[in-house]
Write the structure tokens for this entry.
Amino acid sequence: MDEAGCGGCQVISAEQRSSKHWELTGEGCEIAEQGSHEARVFSSIPDEGMPQGQLMKLAFGKVGFSKAMSNKWIRLDKGHEGGPRVFRTVENIEDSVRDKLLVVQKGQSSQLEEKEKSELKKRKLLSEVTVKSYWITKGSLFSTTITKQETELTPEMIASGSWKEKKFKPYNFEAMGVAPDCGHLHPLMKVRTQFRQIFLEMGFTEMPTNNFIESSFWNFDSLFQPQQHPARDQHDTFFLSDPAQAHEFPLDYLERVRKVHSEGGFGSQGYKYDWKIEEAQKNILRTHTTAVSARMLYKLAQKEKFTPVKYFSIDRVFRNETLDATHLAEFHQIEGVVADYGLTLGDLMGILHQFFTKLGITKLRFKPAYNPYTEPSMEVFSYHEGLKKWVEVGNSGVFRPEMLLPMGLPEGVTVIAWGLSLERPTMIKYGINNIRELVGHKVNLQMVYDSPVCRLDA
Amino acid sequence: MPTVSVKRDLLFHALGRTYSDEEFDELCFEFGLELDEITSEKDIISREQGDTKAEGASDVILYKIDVPANRYDLLCLEGLVRGLQVFKEKMEAPRYRRVSPTSGEPQRLVITEETAAVRPHAVAAVLRNITFTQERYDSFIELQEKLHQNVCRKRTLVAIGTHDLDTISGPFTYTAKPPDDIRFTPLNQAQEYTATELMNLYKTDSHLRHYLHIIEDKPVYPVIYDSNGIVLSMPPIINGDHSKISLNTKNVFIECTATDLTKAKIVLDMMVTMFCEYCEEPFTKETLSGDFINRKVGISESTERIAQLLTKMCLRSEVMSDGEQIEVEIPPTRSDVIHACDIMEDAAMAYGFNNIIRTTPRTYTVANQLPLNKLTELLRQDLAAAGFTEALTFALCSQEDIADKLLKNISDTRACHIANPKTAEFQVARTTLLPGLLKTLAANRKMPLPLRLFEISDVVLKDETKDVGAKNNRRLCAVYYNKSPGFEVIHGLMDRVMQLLEVKPGRDEGYHIQAAQGNRTRKPSETVTFNDDSSFFPGRCAEIFAHGKSIGRLGVLHPDVISRFELTMPCSALDIDIEPFL
């Protein structure tokens, strides 16, 4: 059709039709003419009978003999003098096979029952034939002269100008194009890029988080997280066997941390327990990037004059937790920190509002929460239009004086901070329910190939 | 976060009104709680054990409420109701007093030296003239259990024992003895056992066996006797049967034995303040200024108003004579208050976080990217443009992934080992990105060939010069997987990377590759060494040099590596350190 009618241009139009009918096979034709094998056996046998051997030599002998026997038209006398001999048992027969075939031959196969036809088909006397035909009519552009249509524009046509005279085959705009041969960025990393962009737009400087292995000191103790805190248990945190311990600490600072935990100070009663350096030395895979924030704030405090800072980081953290569809042993934490004189809780909520607005989230509310190193601590909830409920989108708080003052930060300086995971907004953004389909080697590359650009506020 | 489950109707009765589920959820949210689930005993049993088991169970509605981990005073119905009622200004913050018994002499608990070897601290108190109902009794037992699980850290830090005082007589002795010398009838048993026998008996007890390890290997076990030698308890395992409390108990003797004295006091305070009006400890008082609260929260309320807000949070507060300072009484129930900032938080909560005006800090700063991350971001874009697709693989893996499967010795890898992995997937931090990429290929064998993957991320290597003895190293790794090895493809990618990094081909200042030397000895000065090309097909591996330093390798992977990662096609790979290009 395409060749003759050229797609949509319709010189002629053709409609395919198909029909089925029954036909006699070669053997079927022979039987229609001469009778069935069994009938021919019957008529070949004279009144006095015929030796079996002689009968079997006939072309139709073998098949006809057994059919005629089962129809009880003939009998075999095995004990007959001079070898087995075949006799007729009835006077007349009715050759129904031939009769049926004759009906089909006359084109009246519909008179036969389906069962009868399939019986004859099994005997290879009948076959069902499908005939395909085309119904041809004049098309809308019917013409008696033929012009060949070009498929594509060529350099020669452009050079000679022949394209002006040619007719071109229309394109099929319904079909998909050829996929470009290119690489793709991972969706989680695309979202990471956007979060980095947001922090940079807000004037935040990136922290060096390229240290997965951290001492318990920086990960917990410096944050005023007591040594018996459940997060420091074997079943929450990955400890290292090699290298098992950190061996270098700022000693005067370490002493101030010991004191604020065990005895208090800086306006605090402390936790009043026996603080042990052995616990602080234990190396772990960091459980949060706040360990890096602690290092950065300590470094800031060592400067001669305090200057306000805004820091951010997005990097991996590790938890020795039970794994499920939304939890892996490692995930990416997004963290923002602001240190300045006189920051208020209102400032923290204001900056969170600005941050989340850039993510397209404007309806926020805050719930009091508990966190060992922030006071106050607030969980951030946003109203999810799809789920029609408030969902937790992050955690935030004001770092405790017991964390900041031992570092040497000036008394009036407040540090506000917040954090969230990178995976959760990405899973929501790309509609992924199982985190393993997003992160790790079990990722489906087709998903990576097909993922759209990341516009968080759209 | 601990969860407290309370009967809804009982709760509403105590609160003096009913709430819709939404209203109650809202109230919880404001107060820093979370209404986690609305359920019933029947629901819970049918979910956990099937419908048939649940038949006949109670279908009284239960509220499961998440309580912040530091608010031990909200772990029972009594405490919750008290907190919420004061918050809603329906009642005044309670004050607790210690009273002496009518007989005059307080009870005494004598602690002997022997306990130092196993569980050195003990504190005790008496609740007098208490009337238990079934609900109160259940709540009393449940609070004990909640405290055991939370602040007591599964009885390791503190263990609580409660006794009917009228069945025993003081003074009491807390001592420690060898297990075979301790003999008594434990709670709910009919005969006497020695401590050694008890430890055996409880090995199969679904509840108690979890606590045996606390004292099991000690030479002496802690034990409390009354003046007649009756065993009250063998903490932290089990109480004696003799002194057990019942619904009819009038006077309750509470002992807390501990390895942490501060926690023992907290726990004892919780037990007594929740269940009676007697208390042995006076209030502590803090003074702070209204201005401090205003400045920290970002509000401007009068000193009187702030005192009111704090009182609403069970922190009875009064404005002092100067009109600026506020005196705040910290009840023994609020052990979480250890600094003025904790009081500030309560003021902010009472004011309502969501009523605070959101402001923008004026902090002026200029943003900077971390140079290493900036370079990573730029390279990622261009590697994708070069036709390679980004993978994102785990930083933790098995020893096998970085050693056996790559035909290397684990001892040569400088890998950092994890002490407590739950499965083999978390034995080490990766020392190379290659296994992650090969596993990504294996999981995507059905995708049309060729597969071109890359990742730029950190590996972790032991490094003595760092305070923690290890450091991250940013690597670029790429693989090409097809019916032919495609060395020229991966080589072309390497050339492109060098072009992007503005390194020209050339021996000295430029870059070049040369056949890898096999197991070349490592120079101590080198921070990163690629002294092992056993993962590559012999003769098909080249070392890459830039500015005269080895920065990585490229080549066709060894067929054994390919089959160990369950792959079937040839594969070439590129692995370089990008930190020298900063």
